[in-house]
Sequence to fold (366 residues):
Amino acid sequence: MPLATPHYLIDEAALARNLVIVDRLRAASGAKCLLALKCFATWSTFPQIAPHMDGTTSSSLHELKLGREKFGGETHAYSVAWSDGEIDEAVANADKIIFNSVSQLERFGEKAAHLPVGLRVNPGVSHSHFDLADPARPFSRLGESDRTKVEGVMDRVSGFMLHCNCENDSVTAFSDLLNTIETRIGDLLARLDWVSLGGGIHFTKPGYDVDGLAARLKAFADKFGVQVYLEPGDAVVTDTTTLEVSVLDIVENGKAVAIVDSAVEAHMLDLLVYRESGSVAPDEGPHRYQIAGKSCLAGDIFGEFAFPQPLAIGDRISLLNAGGYTMVKKNWFNGVAMPGIAIRRTNGTVELIKSFDYADYVASLS
Ligand SMILES: *Cc1c(COP(=O)(O)O)cnc(C)c1O
Fold:
């Protein structure tokens, strides 16, 4: 019996393929790789991922504690802003703490005096196709951008975090960005022990020049005498996971529309946020359908795809690339049934590791 839909299906073999590349990059560059939990935090997979990475990085106290508890290795604590109520627990669970501004460093630095302390610095340059995700957009709050202020705290920090990339699939573009950063703040980098270059590098994409990236990272580390960290999220889980759905109804209104037992806003939110289309494979054949969700949102559309046969009610569809920024964002909009989470083991068996029901929906509100 195939598993009931909807569910996210994580493929261990695909994850292993990405992790081989992570290992190659770590070995060739000397950089340490921390999983960015804001992208992917499905902790049942951590036993497979953790041996190929050096630890985790976080964007909140919850992520920090999850990394410490379920992943192990080196646990970096970062948050855009720590609150008075969080800081003690953050410090207690962190191997390094990274403040987002000089004012946060001044407010909480004392509490973290026994830890390596880092500062997120915003060098004012970035590579991003989306304004929404561009850390160097005007008036950005992501990292300290006042060089004079940074200079004033250099004796209190041992590292910087510089997260300037989003879906960068070009070593040349990455290297050019690093050149600009070196020109702007190289004198400061030379005074540090470690530098995290953040995430957003698509080094697991087919055809990516992994050796070129490794060489560039190594040159950077050697030039400034620093331990380099990367914080990949999407690169670790790209093309490892599908959202498995079933056709519930087919309606016609100028186009054939297949309604499935899922909803974009609830289960693949980023398609709406970034105005992108989902994808299926092979997306070939004479029969075209708009695949739409069952929520009451008019624009609840996964995309328009081609199929070899006409679709029928009950047919299964696999929506691709549902690993990063999906399970961490799922929500109960419209009360749509929450997809379960399943893993396809390397021996081919599919194991349901988590399911959600009405009680979870009730528990999510009060
Ligand atoms: C989002 C983010 C990451 C992970 O980015 P990916 O694009 O998923 O690799 C890493 N570090 C920081 C600081 C981030 O904000």
Remarks:
- Residues 36, 38-39, 57, 163, 166, 198-200, 231-235, 324 surround pyridoxal-5'-phosphate (CB under 6 Å).
- Residues 171-189 form the longest helix (19 residues).
- The two ends are 36 Å apart (CA to CA).
- The mean pLDDT is 97.
